[in-house]
Design a protein that fits this description.
Blueprint (H helix, E strand, L loop, with lengths): L2 H23 L4 E4 L4 H13 L4 E5 L5 H10 L4 E3 L6 H8 L11 H8 L7 E3 L16 E3 L2 H14 L4 E3 L6 E3 L7 H10 L24 H10 L3 H9 L19 H8 L9 H22 L5 H15 L3
Parallel strand pairs: 1-2, 1-4, 2-3, 4-7, 5-6
Antiparallel strand pairs: 5-7
Helix pairs in contact: 1-2, 2-7, 4-9, 4-12, 8-11
C-alpha cells in the first residue's frame, strides 16, 4: 500500500477511537458486526489495531457451512447469536405459511437484519458506499433518529467533524469506518496484513445469505449448482400452502415446473430470464435432477451429500 492507503487506515482507526470515546461517555459497550466477509474482517482487524474495548457478534441466519467453518476456525472470539428461534427455511414454513420472501415483501431482512432481537446501542459495521445505491447515501456516523441526533449533537460534534445522519436504525449510534473504501482497498488491506480469506470468495463475489430473492439469478445460480438440494428445501416450505406453481403471464411450457419457479423467484423476485439466465436455469435443473436420481439410487455424490447437509442445517439451526 502507498501513503494514500496508509492514510486511509489511520483515518479509519481514528474514527474507531473517537467512536469508543463517545460510547464511553454514554456508558455503552462497543459492538462490532461480523459476517465472515472481507469488509467485516477488515473492520474487526482495524478495531484490534485501534486497541479499543469491543465485542464482535455474528448474527447467523442463512450462511453457507463454509462460512460457518471459516468463522469458527479463524475468529473464535466472535460471539454467535441468532435473532429468531428457527433457521431461514423453517421460518418460511412455520412463521410465513410457506410464502416466499420477495423484493416488495422481504420479511427475511426484517426478521434477521433490520429488526434484530439484539439491539446494540453503539455498533461498528463494514458498510461501504460502493455496495449499493442505498448505502451510497450513508455517512460515516449514523444516529437512530432525529430526536437522538439533536440530543447527541454536542457529544458527536466534540469528536466528529464529518456529516452525521439519522437513519431510523435500531442502534442508537452506528459507525461505518470504511464507508468510503473501494473493493481494491479492502483486498489490499487483507493481503497486506495476511488476513485469512473466506473460501467462499473462490466462487462468489459476495458473502452472506446463501441465496437472495433481491439478487438476480446470475448471482444465485452458482450456489444452486453447488447445493442443488436447496431447491427441495424451498419447494417443501412452499408446499406448506396450496397454491399452483404457475407464474402469472409466463410461458405455459413451465406450468407446475417447481424448479423453474424457484429459479425465477431467485431472479430478483420473478423477473424474466435473459437468454444467459435461461441457460443457467437449465444447468441448475439438470444438476438438481442428477442429484435427485443419484440420491434415489443411493449413489450419492459429494455434491449431493453437501447439498443435503446444507438443506438440513438451514432448516434445523437453533441457538
Amino acid at each position: 500500500m502507498d501513503l494514500f492507503h496508509e492514510e486511509r487506515e489511520e483515518e479509519a482507526i481514528s474514527r474507531i477511537k473517537k467512536f469508543e470515546k463517545i460510547a464511553d461517555k454514554m456508558n455503552f459497550e462497543v459492538a462490532v458486526g461480523f459476517s465472515g466477509g472481507k469488509d467485516s474482517q477488515v473492520v474487526y482487524d482495524l478495531c484490534k489495531r485501534a486497541k479499543i474495548k469491543f465485542v464482535a457478534y455474528f448474527n447467523h441466519c442463512f450462511e453457507s457451512s463454509t462460512t460457518l467453518r471459516f468463522i469458527k476456525e479463524y475468529y473464535s472470539e466472535v460471539i454467535w447469536r441468532r435473532d429468531v428461534k428457527v433457521g431461514f427455511i423453517a421460518n418460511i414454513r412455520l412463521n410465513h405459511s410457506g410464502m416466499l420472501p420477495t423484493v416488495t415483501s422481504a420479511y427475511c431482512c426484517e426478521n434477521y437484519k433490520h429488526n434484530p432481537k439484539y439491539n446494540d446501542a453503539c455498533k461498528i459495521l463494514g458498510i461501504r458506499k460502493i455496495e449499493s445505491t442505498k448505502r451510497a447515501k450513508r455517512t460515516t456516523l449514523m444516529v437512530k433518529n432525529k430526536t437522538q441526533l439533536k440530543k447527541m449533537r454536542p457529544i458527536v460534534n466534540e469528536y466528529f467533524k464529518e456529516q452525521c445522519q439519522s437513519t431510523g436504525a435500531n442502534n442508537i449510534l452506528t459507525l461505518n469506518p470504511i464507508i468510503d473504501w473501494t473493493d481494491k482497498e479492502v483486498w489490499e488491506y487483507i493481503h497486506k496484513y495476511k488476513l485469512p480469506i473466506n473460501p467462499e470468495y473462490k466462487e462468489n463475489k459476495r458473502i452472506g445469505c446463501l441465496v437472495c430473492p433481491k439478487a438476480n439469478f446470475t448471482s444465485n445460480y452458482k450456489v444452486l449448482l453447488k447445493y442443488p438440494k436447496l431447491i427441495d428445501c424451498f419447494i417443501k416450505a412452499r408446499d406448506h400452502i396450496t397454491q399452483s406453481w404457475v407464474i402469472t403471464g409466463d410461458n405455459q411450457d413451465y406450468s407446475d415446473d417447481k424448479v423453474y419457479y424457484i429459479c425465477r423467484w431467485l431472479n430478483h423476485s420473478f423477473m424474466p430470464f435473459t437468454k444467459k439466465q435461461e441457460e443457467y436455469y437449465k444447468q441448475v435443473k439438470n444438476k438438481y435432477y442428477e442429484t435427485t436420481t443419484n440420491s434415489n439410487n443411493n449413489n450419492r455424490t459429494n455434491v449431493a451429500d453437501d447439498s443435503r447437509n446444507e438443506c438440513n442445517t438451514q432448516h434445523n439451526r437453533r441457538v
